[in-house]
Amino acid sequence: MDIIFEQVEHIYHANSPFAQRALYDVDLSIASGTYVAIIGHTGSGKSTLLQHLNGLLQPTNGTVMIGEHTITKAIKPKQLKPLRRKVGIVFQFPEHQLFEETVEKDVCFGPLNFGVPEEEAKKKAKEALSLVGLPEEVLNQSPFDLSGGQMRRVAIAGILAMEPDVIVLDEPTAGLDPRGRKEMMEMFARLHREKKLTTILVTHSMEDAAKYADHLIVMHKGTVWKTGTPQQIFHDPDALLQLGLDVPETVLLKRKLEEKIGREIPSPCLTIDQ
Ligand code: ADP
Questions:
Q1: For residue range 169-183, what is the model confidence (pLDDT) as tens digits?
Q2: ipTM of the complex
Q3: What is the pLDDT of residues 92-145, one digit of tens each?
Q4: For the domain 35-46+76-260, what is the CATH superfamily, name and number?
C-alpha cells in the first residue's frame, strides 16, 4: 500500500480558544515495502503524523491516501475501521496495553475483533508469536508473568496477528537495554525483509535511523523539513545540529577525518554496528 499525504494540516481543538496547529503543508509519499524513519525534535509533529496513518486522527485539511483508502476531514470514523487492520501502530510501551488472562487471548483479541473465526485467530496468534521469537509455551501463560521484553513482544504479536501491510513503530525500543534494543531492531528488520512489511519508524536514535531505514523524513515545527536517503540527510550534519537533532557518531567522525585530510570522503554507506 503506497502512502501519500497531500497538503495535510492538523489542528488540535480547532475552532476553539485552545486551537493548536500540529501539522501543516505536509506532503509526502512512502512507497509500499520501504523502511522509512521519521525523525525530528520533540513537538515537531511526528506523533500527530503517525496517528493519521490509520485514521486515529483525521486531517483538518488536506488528504491522506493509504492504498485504496482516502482520508479527509469529511470521512466518518467508522469507515476507517478496515484501515486499522492494514496499518498496525506499535505505540510506545505497547506492553501497557496487555490486559487478557493469557498470552493467547491477548494476541487473538485483534483478529477476533475484526471477525476472524476463533480457530483461525488462534492459528494466527501462534504464527505471530513465532514471528516475534517467542516459544509456543507462552500461549497459556499470563502476559504479566513474562519479562518486560517478552511482554513487549506479545503486544507486537497482537498487531502482527492482524496481518497488516504497514507497521508503524513509535520509539519501539524505549526503556530497553542496549542488547534488548538491538534484538528488537533486528526483529523489525527481519519482519520488513521477510514479510515485505512497509515499516515506518519514529525514533530519536539517529544510529537506528541510519542503519535500518532506506529513507528518512525529517520533521521540523509541524512540517516536513527534508526527505532523502540517510546519506543525503546526514550529508549536512550542521543543518541537523541546528535543528537540535543528533547525528550519528560515524558522520561526525567522517567529518573530522575530512577536515584533517582536506578532502571529502565518499560515503558508500552509513551502516553502524554497535
Ligand atoms: P512529536 O511527536 O514530534 O513530539 P507531537 O505530534 O506530539 O510531536 O506534537 C506536535 C504539536 O502538537 C506540539 O506542539 C504538541 O504540543 C501539540 N499536541 C500534541 N498532542 C496534542 C493534543 N492532544 N492536544 C493539543 N495539542 C497537542
A1: 999 999 999 999 999
A2: 0.99
A3: 999 999 999 999 999 999 999 999 999 999 999 999 999 999 999 999 999 999
A4: P-loop containing nucleotide triphosphate hydrolases (3.40.50.300)
Which atom of ligand 1 is closest in space to residue 49's alpha carbon? 6
Whole-model pTM? 0.92
Q: Convert the chain into a string of H (helix), E (strand) and C (coil).
A: CCEEEEEEEEEECCCCCCCEEEEEEEEEEECCCCEEEEEECCCCCHHHHHHCCCCCCCCCEEEEEECCEEECCCCCHHHHHHHHHHEEEECCCHHHHCCCCCHHHHHHHHHHHCCCCHHHHHHHHHHHHHHCCCCHHHHHCCHHHCCHHHHHHHHHHHHHCCCCCEEEEECCCCCCCHHHHHHHHHHHHHHHHHHCCEEEEECCCHHHHHHHCCEEEEEECCEEEEEECHHHHHCCHHHHHHCCCCCCHHHHHHHHHHHHHCCCCCCCCCCCCC
Ligand 1 pocket residue status of 181, Cβ below 6 Å? no
- Assess whether the C-beta atom of 24 lies below 6 angstroms from ligand 1: no
Ligand 1: residue whose CA is nearest its atom 6: 45
User: Is residue 52 in contact with ligand 1, taking CB distance under 6 Å?
Assistant: no
